[in-house]
Design a protein that fits this description.
This protein is an alpha/beta fold and 530 residues long. It has 19 helices and 22 strands. It has a six-stranded mixed sheet with strand order 6-7-8-3-9-10, with helices on both faces. It has a six-stranded mixed sheet with strand order 16-19-20-13-21-22, sandwiched between helices. The longest helix has 20 residues. The protein is globular.
Length: 530
């Protein structure tokens, strides 16, 4: 059936005049239709209202205005479970899994098969495993034992378990919120294969992502939100990536960024012989005042582990961290055994897991900003609310954080604005060295350029920045030099005039090739014979 015929059919789900207000309106007057066998790409900047709209459809949030219809009948789910009972499923960015239970138990948590003549609570383990294997096979998890604890899986596999859980039973509408953020390319291919099967079964899908190349690959239709309103809806084939970005942010964004006039000074941070087992192996580099130093590499190359060792979050086996005591002075070794030591020395880590490790989501912006600088807002050991709010307001204004004010819970902010809160905490502390681990993951293109502009401002103040990113284009856009990690080692450091994408990728594979060569090399005795 072609798209024209599909669109002539009644919509599976209709959204009319939907709006949501918290302290301020975050969604207003949105109209959308979903059709069987069709993928609707839902995109927009962080804070545009994508997650709020999807949570309303999924039964997690009640709309303030508007109505919905599912299969021609009024649809107003009172909860997520009520929506799921009607065939509306949602895979959220925050995984809804229990790490201490097995994969099979997570998949069928609310419908565990029972055994025995009276079904007195005995779980039929054999049927549970069989059913789990069937569900797992749909998303390419055939090689994993259904009895494996979810907590033992990597984050990518956990994401696939979450997707598999939502495909069990009747599914009429499936919402995928940034489903590929933590997946490998192979897992992405498996997901897209499954999406193709779902479309063939007549399932309507909403696909939320900032990755425009994925939207072009998977979606027939696109809806673009900006500032809580639907600004454009069209066939995916009718829009280019540049047009989509312009509609998302309300302005044109180029592929180059002006970080301003910067004076790169003397080395401020020096790392020598840093190592921990085989994960990080004798890594050395230095970063100058006013410089952005990028760290590239494949997943598992040791990039995050290196940042944690520098910050004292993990215990190193060997290596030293040195800092310049004054501008222009030679770096001298400092003792960093814990993150407290690092902060005291002026080193901050903006973690890749901002929700799990960087923020206290239920607490207001003010409390999250002051976490890194309690001494500035407390009097006699008691936090002064006036000082705390003033500190938070300063960062809100300086970093253009979209919020209702210092009292708004961080959990209500978009991903990009949450990231700004984390950065603002350390700027209030006036740290000289900032370690950014995947600073723009899950952030829309407009917020990314805001973060890049902020990085430029930090370097103009003479701070040293280390940026870990899986997006090679991002590093090439903003960095002065890039160090490449491979199999735990730093296999090369490239300046802007010397690097190319091919050279950076070759360095990323170099450590693994040398390791393979060692594994397959012939063993010789002292005389040199094999």
């Amino acid at each position: 059936m072609d798209l024209t015929a599909q669109e002539a059919q009644p919509a599976i789900l209709s959204v009319t005049g939907i709006g949501k207000t918290y302290v301020e309106p975050v969604l207003a007057d949105v109209d959308l239709d979903l059709h069987a066998g069709e993928v609707l790409a839902l995109t927009g900047e962080n804070g545009a209202g994508k997650s709020t709209l999807s949570k309303i459809i999924g039964g997690l949030v009640d709309p303030t205005t508007g109505t919905m219809r599912l299969g021609g009948s009024a649809y107003a789910p009172a909860s997520r479970s009520a929506a799921e009972a009607l065939g509306v499923r949602m895979v959220m960015q925050e995984l809804n899994l229990l790490p201490t239970l097995s994969v099979a138990e997570n998949l069928f948590l609310n419908r565990l098969p029972q055994s025995g003549p009276l079904r007195l609570g005995w779980i039929d383990r054999r049927k549970l495993r069989e059913d789990a294997r069937e569900a797992m096979a749909q998303v390419g998890l055939d090689a994993i034992d259904p009895d494996t604890l979810v907590g033992e899986l990597g984050i990518g596999h956990q994401q696939m378990v979450e997707i598999a859980r939502n495909l069990i039973g009747d599914c009429r509408v499936l919402i995928l919120d940034e489903p590929t953020a933590m997946l490998t390319s192979r897992e992405v291919d498996l997901l897209f294969e499954q999406i193709g099967r779902l479309k063939a079964r007549g399932v309507a899908l909403v696909y939320i992502s900032h990755r425009l190349e994925e939207l072009a690959r998977v979606a027939e239709q696109i809806a673009i939100l900006r500032d809580g309103r639907l600004v454009h809806a069209d066939r995916m084939a009718n829009l280019t990536s540049d047009q989509i970005v312009t509609l998302m942010v309300g302005r044109e964004i180029g592929e180059r960024i002006d970080l301003g006039v910067r004076n790169i000074g003397a080395p401020l941070l020096k790392v020598e012989g840093m190592g921990r087992g085989d994960v990080v192996r004798d890594v050395s580099f230095e970063v100058c005042a006013g410089e952005i130093f990028g760290v590239s590499g494949l997943i598992g190359a040791g990039r995050t582990e290196l940042m944690r060792l520098i910050y004292g979050a993990d215990v190193k086996d060997r290596g030293t961290v040195s800092l310049a005591p004054t501008p222009g002075a030679a770096p001298v070794p400092v003792q960093i055994a814990t993150p407290t030591d690092a902060v005291r020395e002026g080193i901050a880590l903006i973690t890749e897991d901002r929700k799990g490790e960087g923020l206290l989501l239920p607490l207001p912006i003010a409390a999250n900003v002051s976490l890194g600088n309690i001494g500035a807002v407390a009097r006699h050991g008691v936090v002064d609310a006036r000082r705390e709010n003033a500190l938070a307001m300063k960062q809100i204004q300086a970093m253009r954080i979209r919020s209702a004010g210092p009292a708004q819970p961080v959990g209500e902010l978009s991903g990009g604005n949450q990231q700004k809160v984390v950065i603002g905490r350390w700027l209030a502390r006036d740290c000289r060295v900032l370690l950014f681990d995947e600073p723009t993951r899950g952030i829309d293109v407009g917020a990314k350029f805001d973060i890049y502009g902020l990085m430029g401002a930090l370097t103009r103040e003479g701070r040293a920045l280390v940026v870990v990113s899986s997006d090679l284009r991002e590093l090439m856009l903003i960095c002065d030099r890039i160090g490449v990690m491979s199999a735990g080692r730093m296999t090369g450091i490239f300046s802007r005039d010397d690097w190319s994408q091919d050279a950076l990728l070759a360095a990323a594979f170099a450590g693994y090739r040398s390791r393979e060569a060692l594994l397959h090399a012939p063993v010789t005795n002292e005389a040199g014979s094999t």
